[in-house]
Every structure is written in structure tokens, then in C-alpha cells.
Amino acid sequence: MAQNISPEIDRLIKLLSKLPGLGPRSARRAALELIKKREPLMKPLVIAMADAAEKIEECHICGNVDAANPCHVCTAPARDQSLICVVQDVGDLWAMERAATFKGVYHVLGGTLSAIDGIRPEDLRIASLVDRVKAGGIAEVILAMNATVDGQTTAHYITDHIEGLKKDEGGIIISRLAHGVPVGGELDYLDDGTINAALNSRRPF
């Protein structure tokens, strides 16, 4: 514990520092801001976090997080259920939704294959994706992986496991995002226009 800092404040700083993008120094600034604005900021935040912890869960169909299960995307009547966009994480799904271009549904893998990190196919939601395709009614699968080595490795693995399905119906279209996504780029850091261009210019994988 830092000298002259109460255990309560020190605990708050340590918890905040575990959030992505917040190191110890940023966590201290955030903690101080919360303490200074206890009524307008900290207390509403505590209530919102408790509410989210109680109500938010993972959609059993696509892996999105929502207060409803299945989530609002999966159950939206206007969504094209024959079009699945496969993303690595929920943050990528949110990025696609911000662009407001894609009208299909999603499948969140929960990461990418990685030999270095020991992430295997069974650690991701790949089997459930294959099951969704096998169940029928899917015309196209869009692989919206990040343009990294692990992202492309995962995309190839998925392609190998679904490209032979629905042969009796002429096969299934497998496409990927194209122009606008730089090599090494991540969806969550791209602007809406770039995502729109990538989605509209997708090509067969």
C-alpha cells in the first residue's frame, strides 16, 4: 500500500489499474476523480456496475453480452439470419454495430488461436459456429478477423471446417473483410468509414 493512502483508496486504485488501458498512474487519476465527484459520478457508477453484474450475461447463440438471452441482435426481426459475421471479441461486434452497415447476425469466438498463448480450438466458440452452419439456413459466413497472424490462422482454421458443409445446396459462401483493414489492424480501433469500406468490399476467403 502506498504511504499515507487509506486501504480503501489503495484497493480502488489497484482494481482500476487492472482495467485495459489503465496503468497505476492513470488508475490513481481515475480514483481521485471518482472520489472528488462522489455524488454525480462514483455513486451512479457503483449502481450501474452492480446492475450490470446482476443482469448482463453471455448470449447462448452468438456469445454477445446483453441483459437478454438470446441477445437483442439475435432476436431482432429485421436481421438477416442467413448472414453470420464472425468476430474475435464482443468489442469487435460493437465496432461493427457502430458502423451501422451490417444487417446480419454475429458469432463471437472469444479470441483467436495462438500456439504461444496455448489457445486451442476447443478454447474458442468454433464448434458452436460449425453447429450453427450445420443447422441450416446460413448462406454466407463473413470472417471479420483482425489482420494479424493469429487472426488469419483462426480464419483459415474456420474455413477448413465449414467450407465443405451444405454441399447438396451448392456450398456456403465464406468471405472476409477486404479494403480498409490494414495488416496488423484491429477492428475496435478502426473508424466507422473504414469498417463500412471493408464490409462492402469483402471477398471470398
Describe this structure in words.
The chain is α/β, with parallel strands linked by helices and 205 residues long. It has two domains: 7-55, Orthogonal Bundle (Helicase, Ruva Protein, domain 3); 65-204, Dna Topoisomerase Vi A Subunit, Chain: A, domain 2, CATH 3.40.1360.10. Helices cover 42% and strands 13% of the residues. It contains eight helices and seven strands. It has helices at 7-16, 24-36, 38-55, 72-75, 90-99, 126-134, 149-162, 192-200; strands at 57-58, 65-66, 80-87, 104-108, 140-143, 173-176, 203-204. The strands form two sheets. It has a five-stranded mixed sheet with strand order 4-3-5-6-7. β1 and β2 form a beta hairpin. α5 (90-99) packs across α8 (192-200). The longest helix has 18 residues, at 38-55. The radius of gyration is 20 Å and the shape is elongated. The mean pLDDT is 88.
How many strands appear in the DSSP assignment? Answer: 7
Shape: elongated
SSE string, helices as H and strands as E: HHHEEHEHEHEHEHE
State which percent range the strand residues make up.
Answer: 5-15%
How many independent structural domains? Answer: 2
| CATH architecture field of the largest domain | 3-Layer(aba) Sandwich
Note the topology:
Elements: H1 7-16, H2 24-36, H3 38-55, E1 57-58, E2 65-66, H4 72-75, E3 80-87, H5 90-99, E4 104-108, H6 126-134, E5 140-143, H7 149-162, E6 173-176, H8 192-200, E7 203-204
Parallel strand pairs: 3-4, 3-5, 5-6
Antiparallel strand pairs: 1-2, 6-7
Helix pairs in contact: 1-2, 5-8
